[in-house]
Design brief:
By secondary structure, the protein is of the alpha/beta class. It has two domains: 251 residues, Spore Coat Polysaccharide Biosynthesis Protein SpsA, Chain A (Alpha-Beta Complex), CATH 3.90.550.10; 33 residues, no CATH class. It has eleven helices and 13 strands. Strands 5-4-1-6-11-8-12-10-9 form a nine-stranded mixed beta sheet. Strand 9 and strand 10 form a beta hairpin. The chain binds uridine 5'-triphosphate (UTP). Uridine 5'-triphosphate (UTP) binds next to helix 5. The site of uridine 5'-triphosphate has 21 residues, from helix 5.
Amino acid sequence: MRVAKAVVPAAGLGTRFLPATKAQPKEMLPVVDRPAIHYIAEEIDACGIRDLLIVTGRGKRAIEDHFDRAIELERLLQKTGNPRLREVQRLLDRLQVFYVRQGTPRGLGHAIACAERHVDREDFAVLLPDDLYISPRPALAQLISVAEQLDAPVVAVVPVPPEDISRYGVVAVGEEIQPGVFRVLDMVEKPQAEDAPSHLGVVGRYVLPPEIFAHLRHTKPGAGGEIQLTDALRALCRERPLYAVTVAGERYDIGEPLGLLRAQISFALQRPDLRQGVVELLREVTQVSDTF
Ligand code: UTP
């Protein structure tokens, strides 16, 4: 496998964040002082990928504006020498960002199918902006290493407690072929805990071959009436080896409010300029809330 393109589906409705997402994309909600999708672009850049396709839809224009020049701000900040905008600019100098619209949000599988023309018979990476990582090595880089070494598609998985497993696509796996790497035998979308084939839930990083598009074309709407990527992956793993990788690092599910809050705190604690302030703030806030 050789990965030179990344696809980021960002056309979902973000209903779990209403009303915050009524008039702004979920992917633009900030984690500390950067939009979630900005961390994803940084991860792609850190893997040496230069070609980023974002799948957008109605009401998602702020994403395009974020990855564009901001002439007025640049002029203003040039005078004050503020480095913050320069950081975005440097990222944009390296990445080429493309867009395709998903007219109707018909599910993650359908969003990825919208990327077919752009991907054009190449292997590619998929990153969901709902999942952020704090990790010693970028999560996607870990997946790409395994995909290159085994010359096979891979999906990221995390161990999930039984009470949460029905929110995930879950893999049935063979033996661990190397630390943290398992052959995928089958997959089930959102099983009940008693029907789950393992405790490993698929999360938002994938390295996929172009054959996935043919499987997506034949995928009928599944759980929730949506075209599920899991169903196409299931067909793929019957045709060629597919591997599940437990990424080294901490994963943050920012697709729901408590997960976003957890990420806010953890990402802020990683920042030398904010760490001490956050520690004091948490101490203060927990004391205050104890008094109510
Ligand atoms: P989610 O199902 O978590 O996102 O999809 P959502 O539908 O926006 O969120 P809720 O459940 O209503 O709160 C995971 C990723 O896939 C994208 C989303 O934007 C998100 O990044 N997605 C999902 C699409 O691009 N198109 C879709 O039709 C569905």
